[in-house]
Design brief:
The structure holds 2 protein chains of 2 kinds. Chain A is 54% helix and 8% strand. By secondary structure, chain A is mainly α. In chain A, strands 1-2 form a two-stranded antiparallel ribbon. By secondary structure, chain B is mainly alpha-helical. Chain B has one domain (2-156). Chain B has 4 helices and no strands. Chain B has helices at 2-35, 53-87, 93-114, 129-156. In chain B, helix 3 (93-114) runs antiparallel to helix 4. Chain B starts with a helix and ends with a helix. The chains are: A mainly alpha, B mainly alpha.
Chain lengths: 72, 159
């Protein structure tokens, strides 16, 4: 997918653990892992809102669009 | 609501299993009567000395096998659905496969049932409209179920 999830980068910047973020956001560690690994198909606005609040950042800091290279 | 639905599904499954087993017994009895082993099933006997011998064997075998397969698949589908419902999900990939095979089994079974009289000497091979109509409906249901599975997977991966 062309959407990259940069939660890891933000976690490192804020020096926060995944478990702590999951607890603050109110999602399971397994679901946070799905999000971090890019396996998630969609993200709810409420989850995005909670992540931005917990990490004190903007949605653009977490999500990034990168054009996929065409397979030759 | 989920509990109520689960109970209803359990009840329907019990019906499917009960009638499925009865149907399978009837199928086996009818088939063995056509072959002429014991002749328990009171029906017009199959004529094995006439023409189209290979076609008669194909119809009888396909009728028995597709009928048994259809009943087993229906029971599998219902039991899996009840089990899935208890675990909180409604759809599974395995059930999509079961439904697709059911479509094929139903088509073969119904086609052979419509042409069962060939075994008794009738010369016409027929394809009735209800066979095609019900097969299409079953195929449509299988496709809708598959779409439901995809939606459920999407929902599961929505964080």
């Amino acid at each position: 997918m062309s959407i990259i999830v940069n939660v890891d980068v933000m976690l490192a910047k804020r020096k926060m653990s995944s478990g702590e973020l999951a607890e603050k956001v109110g999602i399971t560690a397994a679901n946070l892992s799905i999000l971090k690994t890019g396996k998630a198909r969609a993200i709810r606005f409420s989850t995005l809102d909670a992540i931005c609040k917990a990490l004190d950042c903007q949605p653009g800091d977490i999500l990034e669009y990168r054009e996929e290279e065409a397979n030759s | 609501m989920k509990n109520k639905l689960s109970k209803r599904m359990g009840l329907i499954s019990a019906f499917v299993i009960f009638f499925g087993v009865l149907n399978m017994i009837a199928l086996l009895l009818r088939t063995e009567s056509a072959i002429g082993i014991w002749g328990i099933w009171e029906t017009e006997p199959a004529l094995w000395d006439g023409e189209h011998h290979a076609l008669k064997i194909v119809i009888l075998c396909a009728y028995a096998l597709a009928g048994l397969a259809l009943n087993v698949l229906a029971m599998m589908f219902m039991l899996r659905s009840v089990k899935l419902m208890k675990s909180g999900f409604f759809f599974s990939k395995a059930n999509v496969v079961v439904l697709r095979w059911s479509v094929l089994a139903y088509f073969v079974y119904d086609l052979c049932a419509d042409n069962y009289n060939i075994l008794c000497g009738m010369r016409r091979f027929v394809v009735q409209s209800d066979t095609i109509f019900l097969t299409c409906i079953l195929l449509g249901f299988a496709m809708i179920y598959n779409a439901g599975l995809r939606l459920s997977e999407d929902n599961k991966l929505t964080i």
